[in-house]
């Protein structure tokens, strides 16, 4: 499974009412997908667990779109 597929699946599972098809690279987690601050924290924790990486608070604040998450995880792999 690719990074993109895993990320899309995690986002769709964590944000209520979002399907995998809604999770496109340019989508903003908050504005387009409707994530709130608690959901963002849950997403970060899931990404850390699935990809076995650590995302500090400064890095997490920069992850505003799905593409940002793809790029960040790819840079850590």
Tell me what you see in this structure.
There is one protein chain. The protein has 77 residues and is mostly helical. It has a single domain, classed as Orthogonal Bundle (Non-ribosomal Peptide Synthetase Peptidyl Carrier Protein, Chain A), CATH 1.10.1200. Helix 1 packs antiparallel against helix 2 and helix 1 crosses helix 4.
Global geometry: globular
The H-and-E topology, N to C, reads as HHHH
Low-confidence stretches: none
Measured between the Cα atoms of the first and last residue, the distance is: 14 Å
Helix content: 55-70%
> What oligomeric state do the depicted chains represent?
single chain
Largest sheet: none
Count up the domains. 1
Q: What would you report as the Rg, rounded to the nearest angstrom?
A: 11 Å
Average pLDDT figure: 95
Q: Look up the CATH topology.
A: Non-ribosomal Peptide Synthetase Peptidyl Carrier Protein, Chain A
Give a count of the beta strands, DSSP E runs of length 2 or more: 0
CATH architecture: Orthogonal Bundle
Q: What count of helical segments does DSSP give?
A: 4
- CATH class type: Mainly Alpha
Specify the structural class. Answer: mainly alpha
What is the beta-strand fraction? Answer: under 5%
Going by CATH, the homologous superfamily would be: ACP-like
């Amino acid at each position: 499974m690719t990074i993109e597929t895993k990320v899309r699946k995690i986002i769709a599972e964590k944000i209520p009412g979002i399907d995998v098809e809604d999770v496109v690279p340019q989508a903003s987690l908050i504005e387009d997908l409707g994530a709130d601050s608690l959901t963002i924290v849950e997403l970060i924790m899931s990404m850390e667990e699935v990809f076995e990486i650590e995302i500090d608070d400064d890095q997490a604040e920069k992850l505003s779109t799905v593409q940002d998450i793809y790029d960040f995880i790819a840079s850590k792999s």
